[in-house]
Specification:
The protein is an alpha+beta fold and 364 residues long. It has 2 domains: 249 residues, Aminopeptidase; 109 residues, 2-Layer Sandwich (Alpha-Beta Plaits), CATH 3.30.70.360. It contains 10 helices and 19 strands. The two termini are 26 Å apart.
Length: 364
């Protein structure tokens, strides 16, 4: 099976989160010379494959087989890959069956490696991610089998293929703030306490404010208000309470505790209740890490491109590797149509991604 045939096969699985549609069974059979560990939980399929070549370091390639729903308006069937004008159209073409295809083929074709090669796949990255990659890593930690290095093959490139490696990700802190007032008739404001009036002078001090200055790896962590609502959609009653929802995409310089302190200081003296949680933790891999150097060199050797190292974008399963202390990078095809109608990539990018991964394995 050549790389195009493998890619088209993967794209044909209707693997909408958390259903893998048989993709994991296919991959297990395709990688038939690798040892198999299944860590399925609560309807989520997780597959870990490994092969011991020698006593050296453990390199893991990771990704997800699940995709978001296709939505309406496609020019072709989103689960019947279409090749047209040098592009391949299908749901998951960029995010991220291209990456999965490339590392499956690269690991299958490798005959020599001074260590352990492994593959970690889940069907729950696009969903809550509670029972996916993190559960496999918990299992591997219990067995003292965590990888030394990991490559998550998410689509990372921005303007052209090869231009970006992600060496970390910001975390995500979510909050809901309830401010309490006293409902009343709009004609008698002295008899009521309008929570809108209470927050009005505070909003300029919190909305869009940077909570840290950032550093060489991260942009500043910003306090972003995502929703404000109060009242009953009538003009003659002032609201009894008001809700503010916010998010902070935080670097390693800002924590849940520091955000909580920021909010409590700004709203000091007002009757309020704060609920705050961290849905994803930030992580960073040292720029001098072996995995950063080797994948940068492989990109340069195959493409003649020197990639930029950054931490931009949302969250991914790479954060779980970071939590377990695994030096992790993300690298994949160009990211410009993920989750969109008529998602597409090129076969040339997938083939070159395969070459980069294969070269990385050989170099390590």
């Amino acid at each position: 099976m050549n790389i195009k045939e493998l890619f088209f096969k993967l794209l044909s699985f209707k693997s909408i989160t958390p259903n893998d549609d048989g993709a994991m069974d296919f991959i297990e059979k395709y990688m038939n010379d690798f040892q198999v560990i299944r860590v399925d939980k609560n309807g989520v399929k997780n597959l870990f494959l490994y092969k011991k070549f020698g006593k050296g370091e453990h390199l893991c390639f990771a990704g997800h087989i699940d995709v978001v729903p296709p939505g309406n308006g496609w020019s072709s069937d989103p689960f019947k890959p279409l090749e047209k004008n040098d592009f391949i159209y299908a749901r998951g073409a960029q995010d991220m069956k291209s990456g999965v295809c490339a590392f499956l083929k690269a690991c299958k074709d490798i005959e020599k490696f001074d260590g352990i090669l492994s593959l970690l796949l889940t069907s729950d990255e696009e969903g809550d991610a509670k029972y996916g990659t993190v559960e496999v890593l918990k299992y591997l930690k219990e067995k003292n089998f965590l990888p030394d290095f990991a490559v998550v093959a998410e689509p990372t490139c921005e303007r052209f293929f090869g231009d970006t490696i992600k060496i970390g990700r910001r975390g995500s802190i979510n909050g809901k703030l309830d401010i309490f007032g006293k409902q009343g008739h709009v004609a008698y404001p002295k008899k009521a306490t309008n929570p809108i009036n209470l927050i009005a002078p505070i909003l300029p001090k919190i909305a869009g404010v940077n909570l840290d200055e950032g550093d060489e790896n991260f942009e500043p962590s910003q306090f972003v208000i995502t929703d404000i609502r109060a009242g009953m959609e009538v003009t003659n009653v002032t609201p009894n309470d008001l809700k503010i929802m916010f998010n902070v995409r935080n670097s390693t310089l800002t924590s849940v505790k520091s955000v909580e302190h920021f909010v409590k200081e700004k709203f000091k003296g007002l009757p309020f209740e704060l609920n705050i949680n961290q849905s994803a933790k930030p992580f960073i891999t040292n720029r001098n890490s072996k995995i950063v150097k080797y994948i940068s060199n492989s990109i340069n050797e195959i493409l003649g491109v020197t990639p930029v190292l950054n931490t931009a974008g949302g969250t991914s399963d790479a954060r779980f590797f970071g939590e377990f202390g695994v030096d992790t990078v993300e690298f994949g095809v160009k990211n410009d149509t993920i989750h969109s109608i008529n998602e597409r990539t090129t076969l040339n990018e997938v083939e070159n991604l395969y070459k980069i991964f294969k070269n990385l394995i050989k170099e390590m």
